[in-house]
Amino acid sequence: MSRQEYETVMGLEVHAELSTKTKIFCSCPTKFGAEPNTQVCPICMAMPGALPVLNEKVVEYAVKAGLATNCEIERNSKNDRKNYFYPDLPKSYQISQYDKPLCKKGYIEIETSQGKKKIGITRIHIEEDAGKLNHDEFGGGSLVDLNRAGVPLIEIVSEPDLRTTEEVDAYLKKLKSILEYIEVSDCKMQEGSFRADVNVSIRKKGETKLGTRTEMKNMNSFRSIIRAINYEIERQIEVVDKGGIIEQETLRWDEVSGKTFSMRDKEDAQDYRYFPEPDLLTINLSEEYINNIKKSLPEMPESRKQRYLEEYKLSEKDAGILTSSKYLSDLFEKASEVCGNYRAVNNWIISDISRILNEKEMEASEIPFTAEHLGHLVKLIDKGTISSSIGKKVVEELFENQKEPEEIIKEKGWIQISDEGAIKEIVQKIIESNPQSVMDYKAGKDRALGFLVGQAMKETKGKANPQMLNKMFAEELKK
Amino acid sequence: MEITELTVHELQEKIKNKELTIKEINEAYIKRIKEKEPDVQAFITELTEQGLEQAQKIQNKIDNGEKLGELAGIPIGIKDMICTKGIKTTAASKMLENFVAPYDATVMEKINAEEMINLGKLNMDEFAMGGSTEYSYFKKTRNPWDLSRVPGGSSGGSAAAVAANMVPWALGTDTGGSIRQPASFCGIVGLKPTYGLVSRYGVIAFASSLDQVGVFTKDVQDCAMLLNVIAGHDEKDTTSVDIGKKDYTKSLQKNIEGLKIGVPKEFYGDGINPEVKESLNNAILQYKEMGAQVEEFSLDIAQYALATYYIIACAEASSNLGRYDGIRYTYRSKEAKSLKEIYKKSRSEAFGAEVKRRIILGTYVLSSGYYDAYYKRAQQVRTLVMNQFNEAFEKYDIIITPTSPTVAFKIGEKSSNPMEMYLSDICTVSINIAGLPGISIPCGVDKEGMPIGMQLVSKRFGEETIIKAAYAYEQKTKFREKYKPTFKK
After folding, report:
1. pLDDT tens-place string over residues A301-333
2. Of A38, A476, B111, B375, which has the fewest Cβ atoms less than 10 A away?
3. Residue ranges of domains in chain A
4. What is this model's ipTM?
């Protein structure tokens, strides 16, 4: 049977690292990229006798995430132990939440080519991250790095409401943008601070019963999530078409081969033996506490988008792109404030900056330059110090080298030629060396003027003031 | 009187009166350890040399006219379940045979802040699992009253060291009776405080919701003094409670006129040795004579406490002991060739039989399909136990029970029968289940001269009441003046 005859049902488990300064149960820093085992203490190393103390910020951030995704907040929540052995889990249990998550029954709204749709959030709970195993290049074994052990996470579990990869993509982008907006996670996929496991099952169209699902792990970009889903859907269809049965199992996505592999056999079926964490008290939240967090929530993507449509009269598409990321939309607002020309700032972000981000496979949060830099660049163009084609080069340069645009153009000698005498000299030179085009222009072919201006730009490496060039050519050619 | 026979408050008197110096006191204890340790076997790690150096330093400070705390230079012994920075902390297990703690437990910081001198880490049942100290990986401690008998457990080393006058007092831990039962077997005072009164930070976890650090002393006054040192809220242990600073020595009063005592009849049933019962009945009569109002009542839920205890304690232990996995600071099997083998072989080779038994039990009761029938049910019973105790304490100030159904038994008598061993906790476990404070004080000896202990229990944070009741009885009966360990072979 073909893919069209099947419906895909998907649910996502997203793990987002919270951007608290310290870990969830101790005061070790959470900074990414430190030397192995330098951000550890008796607590996160699970020394005998060490006890956890819950970081209040973690609860606050998780409640924020819950409120931003329309969840109910549990007034009496608790922590539970999830028991299993692995070298990156020093206590041999992960402190997580089992039957009383902090947040439940929420939803977020996504927009796809098919229109708007609500995706249910089953629950959001807090838990600790595990350490990392690194391959030992010298000894041949594995080395344990516990810097990440105890970094706070929220796990956001969706309902199986997703039907297409487009919806999955939209859901993940929306979720990521919400978490960025409320500033609880930096959501850097490369650093693993935003990870998604996908549950996939298929069923015949019209069927109401859910098919057996498989869970895929280890995808570290939106692109590989979509690839993995497509691969897994095809695999499941093939199994079913051949009369086989889908096994409920956990699969590991391998980016290199583009395939999924079974992670563990059934013999090893895990029984996590959850039970309430006796070292921690229950988490009791007052109405006042929850209301205060509610009040502190910032403007969310939808209302920001609405504001851009009304206040700035941006197009639906542009407003959507800008507000899809807090970083982009903050860049837009701050740079506009610096230069007073929001249309130009919008154009730079939508066209050149977005293109470069795409090419470099970077996320908006990784834009290396500041809003001041962008604002100053727009100002330089508006003042006529440089042309917009030089502006493009400056933007490229800003991704490499975070200096003031003014400094960049000085260093590179990109300042626009606006001196009338100098422009005249260039125009005369171009006219002399292109008699055919001059004749064409005089014969009524207006396009020839464009060619001549282009030649002049080429001659000056783009530095000539284009308005002045146009004007000067028109005058000279009339003669 | 020998220096080592004195209580700490008596030592303080003599220091104050310049009859004794810190150095003399420590030298006397170290000499005593040299004499008695070969018979008693209470220490896993002796710290006598460091102790002597420390004593000299403190003596120098005093000689230079420095003002020090009242407990500066007083020796102490520490159960090897409590982390001591730079000193081996083994939990009496092969698993932690070479583990040197990189930090001090909060109670240790408090002991150090007083400048007390730690003369050694004391023996115990492995990971505090047992009631006789026979399950130590290192050695079997003997009861100073009769060296062929156990000192009780799990804190048997602490109890024996105090009873043998090798240290004037000691710290222990109590999860189901591990302070009170050995105190009873060794004829000394042992207090398990209310769950939450003393920080558990840095104390190796056995069963997190039951564990509590407590004290072994020669008399009730010392007990109040040492409790003053270790009690108090700790930010590093969120289960510790902030009730403000109390001075428990203020409760050392002889007048207990009108004290309401409840006697739960279920604790005086068939399982209790007749001589123990008789001794308890005499003690109760004594209380009546002193003006207390005594009433018998029923605490029938207590019959379920032992089963409840073993489910909860083993469940928590099975999880708490997971960290001893052969990966970091623990024993690792040399035979292991894969990750699975590191876990299996290291844990098989380094845990003793009793520890394995409890890990298996605990893993079983938490398994999916069994959780509701065991762990969840046990938690529900736990609530009922608490409720019935709470009701009782609406009527009574304290409850009196035997500490243990018997006196100290012979080495080897019960070590091969876990069920027999578990039954020796029958009087103490319900107190941990309910999180209450309990003290064991000596109330007599049996025909063979072995000490019998009486347990006084009060409501949560009712330490002052039990200290008062225990002190009044002790002052009246003067057990310590009548009976002494004989080191009978």
Report:
1. 888 999 999 999 999 999 999 998 899 999 999
2. A38
3. 8-289, 299-412, 420-478
4. 0.96
